[in-house]
Each structure stands twice: as C-alpha cells, then as structure tokens.
C-alpha cells in the first residue's frame, strides 16, 4: 500500500476487528506460474493465537491449493473494510480535490495445510459463524455424512500472520467541522452514502458517543 504514516493502523486488536467484521478476503500467491488470486472467507483462530498474534483459518476449493502452491511459500491475504468516495462537496470551497476513505489490511504468512478432520471442524465453524445471524441457524450437523463428502472438495488452511500492513484512512487530516460534514454526507441518501464508513469515521474521531 501507499506509504501514508498518518493513516497507519498498528494495533493488532484493530486489525482483528477488521478481519472479524469483514471476513471475505483475497488470497494472493506468487507462484512458479505467476501471480494467483482467489477469494474466500476467513475466521480468526483464537484458540491458536495469543493477544499479540493474528491467526487466520479458512479453506480453498480444490484445485486452488495446487494453483496457489499452498504451504510452499508465503501468501498475502487482503481484508477490505468499509470504503467509499468522499466528495469535495463536503469540503470548504477552497478544498476541491476528492479522495477515497477506506480501512484495509494486508496480512502475510505461510499457510499450514489442515488435516481432513480439522478442516471439517473449521468448515463447521465458518457455517456456524455466518448462520448465527439467521432466525433459524443451520449447521453441518443437519446431515454430517453429506457434509463430510462435500468437505473432501476443500482444503483447510491456517495462516499465522507474520506481519501486516494496515491503513485506516478516515479524514484524520481534516478539520473537525469538515469531518462532521463528511460523516453527514455519508449518512445521507445521496449517491455516495455509506453508513458503515460513517461509523468507522466516528469511531476514529471519537464521535460515537455524541
């Protein structure tokens, strides 16, 4: 990412919050055949991490594990949080250059290939994680035999993040009154409305309780 020190996000807990709230990620591998990218949901593996670590679990559908050469080298996993266009209509007249606010994390690590049993457990946790928002959650236990047959088409992975580069670009370089106008614009019914991005800006600027 572009080197922007004043937007750096260095708190491990903040990166974990981003991952937990935005689990759909992009995996990028530099393989012998060139760059390969795929998209899968990730969960935080809290059972394998201490407070200062980020450990991710997911799965890929076969044959992506071959295409990515998983386990043979480091991969990059990109998490994208709320983002959106910021119009100069929300700035003072003399500030006419727009921007794009975003919360993003790049995480690096070498995948560990999970056993079939552990992969099935992680698949179950993924399903349970997303089903918990449903009125009547459904789990793989509904038909475990069929679920296990389906799981054979996937390969589970665990990635212990060895380093990350994260940004929370949320108009920290703007005056408080301009920040409030941007938030109001994001909460409007205009073409660039983004309540989730407005929430992130309020959090970053300490405006949640106002």
Automatic annotation (TrEMBL):
<dbReference type="Pfam" id="PF04299">
    <property type="entry name" value="FMN_bind_2"/>
</dbReference>
<dbReference type="InterPro" id="IPR007396">
    <property type="entry name" value="TR_PAI2-type"/>
</dbReference>
<protein>
    <submittedName>
        <fullName>Transcriptional regulator</fullName>
    </submittedName>
</protein>
<dbReference type="InterPro" id="IPR012349">
    <property type="entry name" value="Split_barrel_FMN-bd"/>
</dbReference>
């Amino acid at each position: 990412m572009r080197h922007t020190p004043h937007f750096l996000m260095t708190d491990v807990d903040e990166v974990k919050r981003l991952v937990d709230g935005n689990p759909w990620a992009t995996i990028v591998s530099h393989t012998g055949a060139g760059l390969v990218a795929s998209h899968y949901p990730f969960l935080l593996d809290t059972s394998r991490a201490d407070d200062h670590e980020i450990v991710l679990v997911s799965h890929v559908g076969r044959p992506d594990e071959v295409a990515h050469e998983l386990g043979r080298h480091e991969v990059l996993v990109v998490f994208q949080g709320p983002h959106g266009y910021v119009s100069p209509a929300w700035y003072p007249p003399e500030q006419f250059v727009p921007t794009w606010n975003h919360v993003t994390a790049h995480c690096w690590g070498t995948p560990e290939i999970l056993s079939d049993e552990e992969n099935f457990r992680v698949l179950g946790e993924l399903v349970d994680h997303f089903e918990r928002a449903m009125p009547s959650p459904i789990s793989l236990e509904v038909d475990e035999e069929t679920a296990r047959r389906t799981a054979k088409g996937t390969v589970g992975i665990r990635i212990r993040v060895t380093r990350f580069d994260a940004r929370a670009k949320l108009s920290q370089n703007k005056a408080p009154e301009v920040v409030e106008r941007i938030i109001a614009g994001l909460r409007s019914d205009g073409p660039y409305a983004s309540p989730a991005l407005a929430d992130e800006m309020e959090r970053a600027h300490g405006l949640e309780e106002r």
